[in-house]
């Protein structure tokens, strides 16, 4: 997803990207290495993936990893919100995004669309899973 997500990011300096459910942080590490002018935050609740993500973030001043509940994470200061979550939480996530995210910001969901909401764009990722990124502009 990293190259496709990189291409979706607005080019302006100071870009703020958050990954809700960042896992081990590999995706964010790739993005942070490619965009030194942007700031990346990973939110992970599970202790072992969080620890791995912290290790993956070492040496990157523009990448922060926090252990937190994604449902309590404010999204209003973010330009791009990325998620790869269970399809069953997508309706709840959509409600949170609509309440928290500012106009013009972008929600990108890997693999799972928001039910009954048409994405602005669907990006086909050239990977073995045939991943799709569903893009929703607030």
Briefly, what is this?
With 138 residues, the chain is of the alpha/beta class.
What does this structure look like?
- The protein has 138 residues and is α/β, with parallel strands linked by helices.
- 28% of the residues lie in helices and 25% in strands.
- It contains 4 helices and 7 strands; from the N terminus they run H-E-H-E-H-E-E-H-E-E-E.
- A 7-stranded mixed sheet has the order 3-2-1-4-5-7-6, with helices on one face.
- The mean pLDDT is 95.
Q: What's the alpha carbon Rg, rounded to whole Å?
A: 14 Å
Could you report the average pLDDT, rounded to the nearest whole number? 95
The major β-sheet equals: 7 strands, mixed
Portion in strands: 25-35%
Share of residues in helices: 25-40%
Report, as a whole number of angstroms, the end-to-end distance: 21 Å
The assigned structural class equals alpha/beta
Number of strand elements: 7
Inertia-based shape = globular
Largest beta sheet: strand ordering: 3-2-1-4-5-7-6
Number of helices: 4
List the secondary-structure elements in sequence, H or E. HEHEHEEHEEE
Question: Which spans of ≥5 residues are poorly predicted at pLDDT below 50?
Answer: none
What is the topology?
Elements: H1 2-8, E1 16-20, H2 26-34, E2 39-44, H3 47-57, E3 63-67, E4 80-83, H4 90-100, E5 106-110, E6 121-124, E7 132-137
Parallel strand pairs: 1-2, 1-4, 2-3, 4-5
Antiparallel strand pairs: 5-7, 6-7
Structural features:
138 residues; alpha/beta; 7-stranded mixed beta sheet; 4 helices; 7 strands; globular
């Amino acid at each position: 997803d990293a190259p496709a997500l990189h291409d979706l990011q607005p080019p302006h300096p100071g870009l703020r990207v958050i990954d809700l459910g960042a896992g081990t942080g590999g995706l964010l590490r790739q993005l942070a290495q490619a965009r030194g002018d942007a700031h990346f935050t990973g939110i992970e609740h599970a202790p072992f993936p969080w620890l791995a993500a912290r290790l993956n973030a070492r040496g990157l001043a523009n990448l922060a990893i926090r252990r937190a509940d994604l449902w309590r994470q404010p999204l209003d200061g973010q330009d791009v919100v990325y998620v790869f979550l269970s399809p069953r939480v997508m309706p709840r996530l959509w409600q949170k995004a609509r309440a928290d995210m500012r106009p013009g910001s972008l929600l990108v969901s890997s693999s799972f669309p928001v039910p009954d909401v048409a994405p602005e764009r669907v990006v086909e990722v050239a990977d073995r899973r045939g991943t799709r990124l569903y893009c929703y502009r607030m």
